[in-house]
Design goal:
Elements lengths: L8 E5 L4 H12 L3 E6 L2 H13 L3 E6 L5 H15 L4 E4 L15 H26 L4 E6 L2 H5 L5 H21 L4 E8 L4 H9 L1 H9 L9 H13 L10 E4 L7
Parallel strand pairs: 1-2, 1-4, 2-3, 4-5, 5-6, 6-7
């Protein structure tokens, strides 16, 4: 049986750890060639080494998602390395949690919007000319906190809902080019999520209680297969949709 992503090339931003790395591992197992990006070159190289040992074809590119020039350079490097782009996974995101709206600073706002909202559109715009000839899949990241509006997540929630806005418009505008754009809202135990929950045990238990399946997802085992579905031809008739891969927290 042929691997579901055989012959496909995917860019995964923030691919050196957490959800990005979990998705990269799932993609590699299904035959995709990968371009992993992020700010930490050593972390990217460690991720690439582990994926290559498992049989994956992986390249890395050190980049800053907040910069348009960096997104354009990432796409150029991917085209030079692989000659095509079939999937773009806009996973990169930095933010500060637990800050009430009344106390948000310009720096905290800029950090979140720059890496998420702006980083997403920069990469979408850079990849579009190379995807429109053959179609493909763009996977952007929303969040339960954007839909739910949790206390202390104001700028993060606004940022993630903005990304859902980009995605729905792109799905309509780029559908004629056979480019599908969908939103994944994962609840996974990434390093940053683990750090936050470890520092806030009461919130961690309250949060766990909202998960119908009773556990935090694993980036590779639980989130990865859903991303594989979105990247594969199995989802060829799905676009503009939000998939809550959260164990049953938000039910739309």
């Amino acid at each position: 049986m042929m691997a579901r992503l055989a012959g496909k090339v995917a860019i995964i931003t923030g691919g050196g750890q957490g959800v990005g790395l979990g998705i990269a591992a799932a993609f590699a197992k299904e035959g995709a060639s990968l371009m992993l990006t992020g700010r930490d070159g050593a972390k990217l190289e460690r991720a690439a080494a582990s994926l290559t040992m498992a049989g994956g074809t992986v390249a890395t590119f050190v980049s800053d998602a907040t910069l348009r020039a960096s997104a354009e350079a990432t796409v150029a490097a991917t085209m030079a390395q692989f000659g095509q782009i079939d999937c773009l996974v806009n996973n990169a995101q930095s933010t500060t949690h637990g800050v009430p709206l009344a106390e948000l600073t310009d720096e905290q706002i800029a950090l979140t919007l720059g890496s998420g909202l702006m980083g997403t559109i920069y990469h979408m715009q850079a990849a579009y000319p190379h995807m429109r000839s053959s179609g493909g899949s763009i996977i952007n990241f929303g969040s339960r906190e954007g839909i739910h509006g949790g206390k202390g997540f104001g700028i993060y929630a606004a940022n993630k809902e903005g990304i859902r806005g980009w995605s729905r418009v792109a799905a309509r505008e780029w559908g004629a080019d056979k480019i599908r754009v969908n939103i994944l809202c994962p609840a996974a135990l990434s390093p940053s999520a683990k750090d936050y929950l470890d520092a806030n045990p009461a919130h961690a238990e309250a949060y766990r209680a909202t998960i119908a399946l009773g556990y935090f997802g694993d980036p590779e085992a639980d989130i990865g297969p859903i991303a594989v579905f979105l990247a594969s031809d199995d989802s060829r008739y799905l676009t503009g949709q939000t998939l809550n891969a959260d164990g049953g927290q938000e039910m739309l």
